[in-house]
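request received
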Amino acid sequence: MRAFDYAAPRSLDETFPLLADGRRVRFLAGGTDIIVQLREGRAECDLLVDLKRIPELRRIEIRPDGTLAIGAAVPCAEVYEHPEVRRRWPALVDAASLIGGIQIQSRASLGGNICNASPAADSVPALIVLGARLVLASARGERELPIEGFFRGPGQTVLQPGELLVRIEVPPLPPCSGARFLRFIPRNEMDIAVANAAAFLRLDDDGRIAQARVALGAVAPTPLLVAEAGELLAGQQPNDELFARAGELAAAAARPITDVRGSVLQRRHLARVLTVRALRGALARAQEGS
Amino acid sequence: MAKVHVRTEINGEPVEFLAEPRQSLLEVLREELGLTGTKEGCNNGNCGACSVIFDGRVVNACCVLAVEAEGARIVTIEGIARDGELHPLQQAFLEEAALQCGICTPGIIVAAKALLDREPNPDELRVRHWLAGNLCRCTGYDKIVRAVLAAAERLQAQEVPQR
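response:
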């Protein structure tokens, strides 16, 4: 591995000056992607900035208005062990508990999963359907954007030089709503998604779908919000025939490639099947009021 | 690049070392500190052979930089047996013949200890899922899972304090 310097600032105010002296900087949270990339020469830097000593990046907070704020360096295991996250945002638990094995989950952060910008990132479709927003910070201040607007392509994001992801904000789930995330891999665990999908449904008093969101991963250069599926579902009575049509729209929205993990044909098929199953799972959770 | 002075705790003892930022915890454990029980398998986070307990959580030492160990509490395979007595997990691995070539064994015992420290009575499915990040190319896992379940039973029967 090429040599680099290391800094572990204690605050964002200590962090920003490190980003301004012209050195090539990479950030270290859980390290399960970046350390391997540096070792294998797939990433290079002059300075590695460890974000784990910055208290606000290590915190899970539930605000008085019900918003969940997850610091960018919080490991997956802390997310899925959090009792309130388990109770209120089970779709996030679906995703965080599928990323790698226990050794990876002990370190890997949602922030790193997002910033690594793999099209197959497991946390992202769940966060998209939950309406998550990302808060980015630089010496110039903070800005925020919906997570689906963060990605430009494989490994490419809207982050500017000198800017970092500091937290993920997930709004409270409205009453009578539910969300589910699912992934397909050829084994039971410890693999990268051939495809993944998440769905969110909110029901009205008559049990009709008031609002829906569907998102896909690993079937396009970036994770996809399938807006047309949400439009189809809104106002309808939930049933298998409707979900099948939403699945067709998801398959049509997919722009997959063939690679070692799967073919175009298989990924389109998975986009459809996973969408239908995620919708069924979201409906079950909405109906049980979770 | 300047070496960094790191103060940490390994197997209950304070340890200080100098490390280059690019050195992994695995590299420093094995090559600087002589703790060669932690094995290098894939060196990319897939196989679990380098599992150590880091601040109470099992991690791959190949995916942690040595400089990140500042202020941490680390347990390696060398810290599992106490006072010359094998830990019930180690005893169970011997009795169940839960190893063949042995390269994966330290990592699996460390990972299994992290499980039993948290959940003294896991079922078979839980053990299999917990150990999903530890690859064994010899045993087929059945004997490993049996050994972990036997150790859990023994630990509970003896009420051995978790350490």
